[in-house]
Each structure stands twice: as structure tokens, then as C-alpha cells.
């Protein structure tokens, strides 16, 4: 790493991303705010993460929280400032004075007390795009404290995920992350508008409204059919074969989907189900949905006699949707994810290596890569503050 905190090994060969030249100051913790920053950083922005002395407490989380910091804080530089001290606040204001973007996800009003809120910063930096990642947008709930799980429960997602009477949060921080993605969308839209007007914007993204957007299809289902959507484990599927099946090895399950009349014929031909294929009462998708209780036992019996590898080979050959059921940690060795930069090599705080998913997009056929490994607390404080001091002197 050079004196400016830039990667000199793995990241040195990475081309500048489309957001190169955009400077981002990040006052965040946990998942939602850092997810905004890591997306911008992966796309080439210079993201400076402001941490308290000793580092973001997210670094110390145990259990399911132990993966938060490694996943959402690459491609950032770390500066430690004490925002409880006048000098720390002054340094933070200096960082924001010519920033393009500021991100924060603290409780409403926290940064305002330090003169680091939207009104104070935009008064001296009118080009600033300021993004607040909160629990709620404007309305009766906006002062409530929220978490990913809270909004999954109150936003209908937990109801849809678990069986009836047993609401269940999704198995990842889907609302934190997608909420952060909407924050990035708002930031990029505001930057594009700034190209035309020269004026920044206050962007706000939220957990609750993100949850409502994600369950919008179920709200629409009620509007269309007059019947409330049932939880996913007991829903009436739109297709007869769209389920998880046990194979010859009980620990090797496989999801199979047959979602068109053409796929139905191909499926029957590939697996020797001529009798079902020739049954005119099963010719159309809706007919098969109505006959699901008759079709599925035959399919389950057939699948249960085959190995997963054999099933996968046949399904892939005929182009049907399928998916082996795997644990997240097994993806580290996935041949597709490991091709073309789909996994990034990072270094954990104790020096051990880790492979984590890259941003799931390609630009001109290239996946965004790694320019900065996970920073240690305050690793770039001196370099960043010295650079800002030089710039401030020149400006004066």
C-alpha cells in the first residue's frame, strides 16, 4: 500500500471505475449505510470511512454480525476522528467541505448536533449530495428506531417468508442491502441532475419503504384477485412443478422449475414421462396447476431414484431452470463465481485470507475489482488529513 492508502498489489491493475474522481465521506455503521459506500467504492469512488477512535464497533460483532464489516467495507479508506471533540468535528467538516457525497445512517439528528447534517454542510458546499439511510421516510413513523428485521416484520416480508402463523425473516440482510442499493440509485440520480444544475441534493433511503416495495407484487395480487397473498410455503404456485425435490441422496436436494408448455414437453421427454406428456388434460400450464396433486407424486418418485449430478446434467442439457440447494459458504468454491473476477480476495483483521463476492454487475464486460483491502481503524488518517491540509492551503 502506498502513502495514500492505495493498493499496490492486487488492486494496482484495476482500471479506474466509472465513479473515479467522486469523493465520498461516509459516517456509517452496521449494514445499510456501509452497503451504500461499498457499492460506490467498488464503482471507483474514493470512499473515506470516518470511524470513532478505535474503529467502527461493527468490527467487533459476533455471530451473524461477524461478516458485516468484511463484506461491506472494502474499497474504502479509514479515518478515525473523535466527533465528541471540537478538533474532530472541525476535521470532519473539512473533509466534507469539498466532498461530492456524504453518507450517514445514524439516528435522526445525531450529525446535526455536530454541524455535519445536510443543512449545515450544503450551506457551505451547495454541490453536495447528502444521503441519509434511515428506518423510515417522511411520515408518522419517521422518528422510530428500525432494524432490518423490524421492517421485515411490519412490512409483510416476514409474513410471506414463513409458514402461516410463523413469520420468518429472510436469511440475509436483504432490506439493509436493497435499501442501500436504493440509496445508491438516488445518489447517482442526484449526481446526474447536478451535472445539469450545479446543485446537489438531499437523498433519503429507508428500510420500511424498501420492504413495502419488495412486497408490492403481493399487494398487487390482492388488487387483481381480491384475495390476500398467502405465505410462500403454502402459496398456490403459478406452475405445477416449481419446488424442491429430494434426490437419491437425502442430503442433496434440488429445486426444479417447469414454467412453460414447451418446458413441460422437454421435461417429460428427458425423463421418460411419456404418459404425462400425452395426457391432453395436462396440455396447458393452468391445467397442470389444477392437477398438481396428481403430477407431483409421480415426479417426486422419479427424482428420488436419481442422483443430483444425473438430474443436473439432464436439466442443463434441455435448458430447464434448476438449482442445487447449497450453504452460503459453499459458494466460495463455485466455479462460475470464481470465473472472471466474481470473487475478491481480501484480508481479515487477523491476517487470514477471505474470498467474498464482487459487485454483481459487469461494465464493458468487466467486474468491478478490489482497489483497497479492508482497512484497519484509522489506517489512512494521516495520509488523508495531510492531503486535505495541502489542498486547503492551496485554496486559501
Strand line-up in the sheet with most strands = 3-2-1-4-5-6
| Rg from Cα | 25 Å
**Spans of at least 5 consecutive residues with low confidence:** 1-13, 392-396
Secondary structure tally, helices = 16
Number of domains: 2
- CATH architecture of the largest domain, by name, is 3-Layer(aba) Sandwich
The CA-CA distance between the termini, in Å, is 31 Å
**DSSP strand count:** 11
What proportion of the residues form beta strands (DSSP E)? 5-15%
CATH class call of the largest domain: Alpha Beta
Share of residues in helices: 25-40%
CATH homologous superfamily name of the largest domain? Crotonobetainyl-coa:carnitine coa-transferase, domain 1
The string of secondary-structure elements, in order, is EHEHEHEHHEHHHEHHEEHHHHHEEEH
Report what the structure shows.
The protein has 396 residues and is an alpha/beta fold. It has two domains: 10-215 and 332-395, Crotonobetainyl-coa:carnitine coa-transferase, domain 1 (Rossmann fold); 237-327, 2-Layer Sandwich (formyl-coa transferase, domain 3). 38% of the residues lie in helices and 14% in strands. The chain is built from 16 helices and eleven strands. It has helices at residues 32-42, 68-72, 86-97, 110-113, 118-124, 148-154, 157-161, 174-197, 207-214, 216-225, 261-270, 274-278, 285-290, 292-303, 308-318, 381-395, and strands at 23-27, 46-51, 76-80, 101-104, 129-134, 201-206, 241-246, 253-258, 322-324, 343-347, 353-357. It has a six-stranded parallel β-sheet, sandwiched between helices. A hairpin with a 5-residue loop joins strand 10 and strand 11 (353-357). Helix 1 packs across helix 8. The protein is elongated and about 80 Å long.
